[in-house]
Design a protein that fits this description.
By secondary structure, the protein is mainly α. It has one domain: Multidrug-efflux Transporter Regulator, Chain: A, Domain 2 (Orthogonal Bundle), CATH 1.10.1660. Helix 1 packs across helix 2 and helix 3 packs across helix 4. The radius of gyration is 18 Å and the shape is flat. It starts with 14 loop residues before the first strand and ends with a helix.
């Protein structure tokens, strides 16, 4: 019996290129260009077909939005990467502040 819980996994490569393109409202060629540029690298099925995860679809959608705003694909990938780094840094700062408050008590 198949394990359908894997479909809840954001990183499970459940979508074919055609399905991904349809969900995102993009051409298959756009998804291929992301793979060629190594900014979204889908897994491959045993037959060599691209398979995308939900996380990769979200990334492709972000890149498409930036691309539509006039950025080159490489610039869009850099912007998305910097946004991810900023979010991670903000989360780390929040966790460090919470730890500091826990150890010293909240500041007045």
């Amino acid at each position: 019996m198949p394990d359908l819980r894997r479909l809840d996994d954001q990183d499970f490569p459940a979508f074919t290129t055609g399905q991904a393109a349809e969900l995102l409202g993009v051409q298959v060629a756009f998804l291929r260009s992301l793979d060629t540029a190594a900014v979204v690298s889908p897994e491959r099925s045993t037959g060599g077909h691209r398979r995308y995860s939900r996380r990769q679809l979200e990334q492709a959608a972000r890149l498409r939005e930036l691309f539509d705003q006039g950025h080159t694909l490489q610039a869009a990938a850099r912007i998305a990467g910097l946004e991810d780094e900023l979010t991670a840094a903000q989360e780390e700062i929040g966790a460090l502040r919470a730890e500091l408050d826990r150890r010293t008590g909240p500041s007045a």
